């Protein structure tokens, strides 16, 4: 199945070999919306604190991103924002920090089916190099209009690793979730790119709906002459693959949890950080 999907991607890229698509470059501007859903389970929290935490988590945050692309390469980066992405702090000292760095850069190379991503974690810079996951897209027949473009529907199911932690637990609990990913792409822009690590369809992906996380394309610039598209390859940070980076993150979080639980009066001033 994987071989067939890889072959399909190669055929897809070769099929875009017309004079138009070979010279096609552009920028697509997206609004990202994330509805955070977590389960809070702590005997150390009062009902009022739990209710307030749930209200904070229900509030969606939004950020702006730009996808710069050529036929086979792309950059994905957050646009500068005045907002800090931190939810209001409660009177009991609880706050939620939605981490994310505007300088982080994601580079995708569809010809090589690989990506390189700059990622800041706990004040250190990392360079993640790995292969792109080829998804088992199910092509739908539904269409809708998104701006000036007719978009078609495609879906796949994804099993994700989730983590749950509460104050009464010694360490984070690993759980599995299956989510349905729905996207809308337009063959009228014949590139196989999309936001974040989404790719592999016969047209630019304009919308993504992934659980509580969504991307909406709001503006597209094709072959901009005033400011031509230039693709950058990230080079800053300690190099590792995605598995090594995940393991390093989990170990760092475990160490922080141990330090937190060992402090007297650790029940107060709780802070939940969620990577975004």
Automatic annotation (TrEMBL):
<dbReference type="Pfam" id="PF09697">
    <property type="entry name" value="Porph_ging"/>
</dbReference>
<keyword id="KW-0732">Signal</keyword>
<dbReference type="InterPro" id="IPR005901">
    <property type="entry name" value="GLPGLI"/>
</dbReference>
<feature type="signal peptide">
    <location>
        <begin position="1"/>
        <end position="21"/>
    </location>
</feature>
<feature type="region of interest" description="Disordered">
    <location>
        <begin position="255"/>
        <end position="276"/>
    </location>
</feature>
<protein>
    <submittedName>
        <fullName>GLPGLI family protein</fullName>
    </submittedName>
</protein>
């Amino acid at each position: 199945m994987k071989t067939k999907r890889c072959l399909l991607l190669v055929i897809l890229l070769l099929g875009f070999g017309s004079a138009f698509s070979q010279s096609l470059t552009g920028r697509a501007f997206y609004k990202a919306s994330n509805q955070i859903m977590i389960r809070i389970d702590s005997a150390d929290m009062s009902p009022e604190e739990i209710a307030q935490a749930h209200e904070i988590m229900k509030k969606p945050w939004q950020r702006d991103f730009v996808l710069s692309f050529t036929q086979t390469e792309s950059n994905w980066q957050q646009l500068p924002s005045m907002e800090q992405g931190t939810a209001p702090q409660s009177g009991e000292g609880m706050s939620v920090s939605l981490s994310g760095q505007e300088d982080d850069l994601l580079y995708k190379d569809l010809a090589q089916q690989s990506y390189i991503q700059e990622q800041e974690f706990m004040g250190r810079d990392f360079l993640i190099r790995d292969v792109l996951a080829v998804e088992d897209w199910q092509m739908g027949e539904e269409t809708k209009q998104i701006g000036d473009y007719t978009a078609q529907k495609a879906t796949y199911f994804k099993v994700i690793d989730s983590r749950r932690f509460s104050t009464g637990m010694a360490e984070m609990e690993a759980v599995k979730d299956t989510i349905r990913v729905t996207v809308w792409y337009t063959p009228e822009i014949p590139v196989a790119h999309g936001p974040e690590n989404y790719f592999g369809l016969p047209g630019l992906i304009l919308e993504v709906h992934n659980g509580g996380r969504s991307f909406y394309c709001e503006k597209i610039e094709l072959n901009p002459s005033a400011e031509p598209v230039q693709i950058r390859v990230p080079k800053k940070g300690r190099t590792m693959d995605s598995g090594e980076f995940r393991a390093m993150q989990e170990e760092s979080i475990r160490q922080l949890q141990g330090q937190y639980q060992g402090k007297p009066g650790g029940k107060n001033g709780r802070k939940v950080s969620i990577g975004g």
